[in-house]
Amino acid sequence: MSQTKASVSELVRHWQDVPGGLMPALWSIQNAFGHVPSHAVPEIASILNLSVAEVHGVISFYHDFKTEPASAHSIKLCRAEACQAMGVRALETFAEQRLGVKFDEQGPLVCLESVYCLGLCACAPAAMVDGKLHARLNEQKLGKLIDECESTEAGAHD
Q: Which residue stretches of the chain have pLDDT < 50?
């Protein structure tokens, strides 16, 4: 842990004199470790002269910050109004059952995440799988995307 702590300190110190440096510091840590370890929060707060509550508040507010190591693959299913109008609710149920995880939970291989607009409203329902957009989804297409995730061990993260 001391090596990790030293690395966290190095990453955060780079941003300590930058106004609004918390966000880029958190991104630096997440890019380096795949998540923002909970044990790093007090160190981040101390270096940036913030309270632990302020740092924790930012991490918990932004859904893209992870506090646990990420799954190998990420499926972000749009749950906004246009996608709802085009049948995403059935896809939500299908994805949860097929993957064996609920929304916004880390699965062993795939994390199923909620998003509320991918900008593909005219081609709804839509999803982002490992950073790649997919539109006009149905159970067959989503099932194929899940099969692809399950057949490989690691994917690209967005």
A: 1, 155-158
- CATH number, domain 73-151: 3.40.30.10
CA atoms within 13 A on the CB side of 27: 7
**pLDDT tens digits for range 110-144:** 889 999 999 999 999 999 999 999 999 999 999 99
Q: Where in the chain is the domain with CATH 3.40.30.10?
A: 73-151
